């Protein structure tokens, strides 16, 4: 039956720059993504987030859609440049008021707000001043911004997430050999400098946690959201499971991001691989980074197959065959088991079986088309979501601490360097008219929520 626990959180997720638009309204100033997307050749078709889904003006109708869907939990992000437009200094009350209106509207419909305090849109003013994530200073400015938000909205919001996907706004935003795909899109001189940016982000997470707890007027829940790179055993033999666990340490940047955040130390296996490229860690840094958390958010879309091998690592990553199924993104290979293994790795490989886990993003881009009757029959997305929810259910049935699932995304939106060419929503957005059309996957997800099971 794939039934979920009665207290399971069914939700949907979005991010400020991807949906809000109104980029020059309400006192907001540019973020690095405004600058990056306005730079010729950076974003497909020259798309920008200037209008996006115009959610800034249409949030009431969007919240009504959430109510129709039946979700009781909504994850969104707060734009730093709406709150403190210059990144530090004067607070923009108009920006605060927008989020007050949004959150009050959510409460009206019985929907719990889950606020991500940073989803990639760093103030351009700080980039100009000191290069944002290249400097330790960012951790202090971020903590000041967090204090402002939590003091003013903490009576309305009790679920806080510090940062979304550190690897994406550091390792995909800075590079050595080539031009990075994400804002601010800077080439640095060495791998060590790139790793230094993610270390500074970890510091910001730590100072952010401290700021939330100090500023919140009521008890609240604090979490980090990470897009771990999931290793999946090609089959579940003891040898291949052990290989997947070993490989998890060094897959992409896991050992240098999720490990220090959850254990207080960089993975020794990762440091061994990095050698002189490892970041400089000052005394006291790891204590700041390793803050107590109430939960962990995992964004999981895909994974990598691994098997045991007789090399010095004891494992090897397996290339996917040419015809392997994928969704409408070059990296979006369909590996539903990645949700189960992602959750299991946090519990067993990282050793944090005490930590409640939420899937804070899970979903796919599909080649959605409006048919002759004005509908979007996205059975491919339904197939993808159904298999991933079954994988989530397996984790719960085996006793792992999964507490909720937020589909990515509530609606089609600005997909970063892909602009408006990729659609992740369960609601279709006609960008010319801003008309919202719920897709077949919207109805399917609503039925899952209604029956509290995978249908």
Number of domains: 1
Low-confidence stretches: none
The CATH superfamily name is Glycosidases
| Major sheet details | 8 strands, parallel, barrel
The main sheet orders its strands as 1-2-3-4-7-9-12-13
- State the CATH class: Alpha Beta
* CATH architecture tag: Alpha-Beta Barrel
Shape: globular
Q: Pairing-aware structural class of the strands and helices?
A: alpha/beta
The portion of residues assigned to helices is: 25-40%
* Spatial extent as radius of gyration: 21 Å
**Average pLDDT level:** 98
H/I helix tally: 16
Distance between the termini: 8 Å
Would you count the extended β strands for me? 15
CATH fold node name: TIM Barrel
Strand content: 5-15%
What this model shows, in words?
The protein is built from 16 helices and 15 strands. It has helices spanning 16-19, 32-37, 55-69, 80-83, 93-108, 124-130, 137-153, 166-170, 191-215, 238-250, 254-263, 268-274, 285-289, 337-349, 379-397, 440-451; strands at residues 9-13, 73-77, 112-116, 159-164, 174-175, 186-187, 221-226, 231-233, 295-299, 304-308, 315-317, 357-362, 402-408, 427-430, 435-438. The protein is globular, with a radius of gyration of 21 Å. The chain has 455 residues and is of the alpha/beta class. The strands form four sheets. An eight-stranded parallel β-barrel has the order 1-2-3-4-7-9-12-13, surrounded by four helices. It has a single domain (9-451), classed as Glycosidases (TIM Barrel, Alpha-Beta Barrel).
């Amino acid at each position: 039956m794939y039934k979920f626990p009665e207290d399971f959180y069914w939700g949907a997720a979005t991010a400020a720059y991807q949906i809000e638009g109104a980029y020059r309204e309400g006192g907001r100033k540019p973020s690095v993504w405004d600058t990056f997307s306005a730079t010729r050749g950076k974003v497909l078709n020259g798309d920008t987030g200037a209008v996006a889904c115009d959610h800034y003006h249409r949030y009431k109708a969007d919240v009504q859609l959430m109510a129709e869907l039946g979700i009781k939990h909504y994850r969104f992000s707060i734009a730093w440049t709406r709150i403190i437009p210059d990144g530090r200094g004067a607070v923009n009350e108009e920006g605060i008021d927008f989020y007050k209106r949004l959150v009050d509207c959510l409460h009206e419909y019985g929907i719990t707000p889950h606020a991500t305090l940073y989803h990639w849109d760093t103030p351009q003013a700080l980039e100009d001043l000191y290069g944002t994530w290249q400097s330790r200073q960012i951790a202090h400015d971020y903590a000041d911004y967090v204090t402002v938000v939590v003091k003013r909205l903490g009576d309305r919001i009790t679920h806080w997430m510090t940062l979304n996907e550190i690897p994406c706004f550091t390792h995909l935003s800075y590079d050595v050999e080539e031009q990075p795909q994400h804002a601010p899109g800077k080439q640095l001189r060495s791998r060590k400098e790139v790793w230094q940016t993610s270390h500074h982000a970890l510091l910001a997470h730590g100072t952010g946690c401290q700021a939330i707890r100090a500023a919140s007027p009521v008890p609240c829940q604090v979490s980090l959201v990470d897009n771990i790179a999931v290793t999946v055993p090609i089959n579940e033999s003891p040898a291949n499971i052990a290989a997947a666990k070993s490989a998890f340490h060094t897959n992409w940047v896991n050992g240098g991001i999720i490990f220090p955040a959850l254990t207080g130390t960089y993975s020794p296996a990762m440091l061994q691989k990095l050698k002189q490229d490892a970041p400089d860690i000052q005394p006291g840094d790891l204590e700041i980074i390793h803050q107590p958390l109430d939960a962990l958010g995992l964004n999981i879309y895909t994974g990598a197959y691994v098997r045991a091998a007789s090399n010095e690592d004891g494992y090897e990553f397996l290339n996917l065959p040419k015809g392997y199924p994928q969704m409408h993104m070059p990296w979006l290979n369909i590996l539903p088991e990645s949700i189960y293994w992602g959750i299991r790795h946090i519990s067993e490989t990282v050793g944090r079986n005490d930590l409640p886990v939420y899937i804070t993003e899970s979903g796919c881009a599909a080649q959605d088309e409006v048919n002759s009757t004005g509908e979007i029959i996205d059975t491919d997305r339904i197939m993808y979501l159904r298999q991933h929810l079954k994988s989530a259910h397996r984790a719960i049935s085996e006793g792992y601490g999964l507490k909720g699932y937020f589909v990515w995304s509530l609606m089609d939106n600005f997909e970063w360097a892909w602009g408006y060419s990729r659609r992740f929503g369960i609601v279709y957005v006609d960008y010319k008219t801003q008309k919202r059309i719920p897709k077949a996957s919207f109805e399917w997800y609503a039925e899952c929520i209604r029956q509290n099971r995978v249908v």
